[in-house]
Amino acid sequence: MSNNQPVRPEDILKDGEDFVSGTTARKGSIAAFMRNIDVIENSDLEKEVHDAAIEIMQELAPVLVQFNFHKHLTFKNSVVQKILMDAV
Q: Are 61 and 33 contacting, i.e. CB atoms less than 8 angstroms apart?
């Protein structure tokens, strides 16, 4: 796929596909990572919930790297930014 053409979601992952260049990238992977930022920023949560969200984000971070998030985005939350950069 060329880097100078617009891209639709189905150009990256066809229906039923879960891999991009060998990385598991289910269609909800990026959304789950982003939603877990809200989880870890919720100060009312128990430590176990917070830690589980961090662990999931660490598992999903390689997907964001595969899609070059680390080249184009900087997260305001330093914990989230570190998770992403640790996956690079």
A: yes
Element spanning 19, H or E: strand 19-20
User: Could you give the CA distance from residue 7 to residue 60 in angstroms, rounded to a whole number?
Assistant: 22
Which pair of structure tokens corresponds to residue 67? 């899609």
pLDDT per position as a tens digit, 21-65: 666 677 788 889 999 999 999 989 899 999 999 999 999 999 899
**CA 10 from chain center: how many Å?**
18
DSSP structure class, residue 40:
H
One-letter amino acid identity for 50? H
What is the model's pTM? 0.79
